[in-house]
Amino acid sequence: MRYRVGLQALAGVGFALVLGGCATTPPFAPTLTQQAQTAPAPQAVSRNARAPATPVAWGGTIVKIDNEAHATLITVLAYPLNDALRPKLHESTLGRFIVREAGFLEPLIYAPGRELTVIGHVSAFKPGEIGQQPYNYPVVTAQAMHLWPIEPIRTAPRFQFGIGIGIGSRF
Asked: What distance in Å separates the CA atoms of residue 130 and residue 140, rounded to the nearest whole number?
């Protein structure tokens, strides 16, 4: 009888470990995400030229990256964020901002088109242009940054026709 109870307990622990392995960890510490706010949008902050008092959580796609002597500046096209703070690229853009990260970041890793989310304070404004239009970029000094993995392009069909497991034709 004891053997059976021990086996059930072991099976329960194993099941919990398997389920725990399926869980994803959030990219940011909960204390950071609780302090940060996703509003106001970078475009609104740019127009007002006033930095919010609290940290911001902004994200989008990288437009360009500039490595300077002691820091890296990443220009980002902002998008709204989902609950996991990942940019929602299918929605309208929210302006642009610059991320300032101390030290060197590899431009081939932080390449244009990659998705990036940052939590930090708006520490300055940098005048610039988008095309021929003047734009006042909010500069966020990063407390935490997350470069999202590239989503693989699916070339295989999403359904399969057949009998059993792994036997059949793909369409």
From this structure: 18
Half-sphere exposure of 51 (CA within 13 A, CB side): 17
Interatomic CA distance for residues 27 and 103, integer angstroms: 21
pLDDT in tens, 7-39: 555 555 455 444 444 555 667 878 777 778 777
Domain boundaries, the chain: 30-147
Residues 6+ apart with CB under 8 A from 84: 26, 27
Q: pTM for the full model?
A: 0.75
- Complete DSSP assignment for the chain: -HHHHHHHHHHHHHHHHHHHHHPPPPSS-HHHHHH-B--S-HHHHHHHT---SS-EEEEEEEEEEEE-SSEEEEEEEEE-B-TTS-B-TTSPP--EEEEEEES---TTTS-TT-EEEEEEEEEEEEEEEETTEEEEEEEEEEEEEEEPPPPPPP-S-S-EEESSSS-EEE-
Q: Which residues lie across from 47 on neighbouring strands?
A: none
The CATH architecture to which 30-147 belongs is: Beta Barrel (2.40)
Tell me the pLDDT tens digit for each residue of 108-149.
999 999 999 999 999 999 999 999 999 999 999 999 999 999
